User: Which sequence fits this backbone?
């Protein structure tokens, strides 16, 4: 038998250690787009809403593009980690996970884009704020997320590309969708009933 100096037990755990290294390297932080290298000229059509949630028409606006330094100055640590790095807050830890009797509008913490209304919020039992529909399909966009060796649908702010959360097909009627969002990506504006 070949003597290598490595205990047999180490050989047994090497495949798991290798898989862990692959997973860590796969989820490395992606660089943020630099405002000076383009992207700031892109435009997007959004539906506009007052803080009371009333429709105010549509408008074509420039996408918000900032440098990493600018985002870090604007956002708290967890807000930056979630919205600009695609992180996820712990379940039952965010400020908006509980379904309450409050009425209001949820805006993007990064750019103020209107995203969700309390009328579409429901208790999903997951520990994250969940909605069965966005305030407007134009104000969010979806993309395929294959992180962590699974395929999900990521939800982003259409105005600034902030990571908001994911959408799943296990929600209530009328859409059957569950927009599972991070509280750190949202800013709630309460309105009187």
Assistant:
């Amino acid at each position: 038998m070949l003597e290598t100096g490595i205990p047999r037990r180490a050989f047994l755990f090497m495949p798991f250690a290798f898989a862990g290294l692959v997973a860590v390297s796969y989820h490395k932080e992606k660089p943020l787009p630099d405002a000076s290298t383009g992207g700031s000229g892109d435009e997007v059509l959004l539906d506009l809403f007052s803080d009371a949630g009333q429709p105010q028409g549509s408008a074509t606006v420039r996408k918000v593009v900032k440098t990493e330094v600018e985002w870090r100055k604007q956002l708290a640590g967890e807000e930056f980690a979630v919205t600009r790095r695609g992180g996820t807050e712990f379940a039952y830890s965010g400020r908006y996970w509980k379904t309450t009797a409050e009425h209001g509008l949820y805006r993007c913490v990064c750019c103020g884009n209107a995203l969700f209304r309390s009328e579409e919020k429901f208790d999903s039992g997951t520990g994250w704020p969940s909605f069965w529909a966005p305030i407007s399909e134009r104000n969010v966009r979806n993309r395929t997320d294959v992180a962590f060796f699974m395929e999900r649908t990521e939800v982003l702010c259409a105005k600034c590309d902030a990571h908001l959360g994911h959408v799943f097909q296990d929600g209530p009627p009328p859409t059957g969708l569950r927009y599972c969002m991070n509280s750190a990506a949202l800013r709630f504006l309460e309105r009187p009933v």
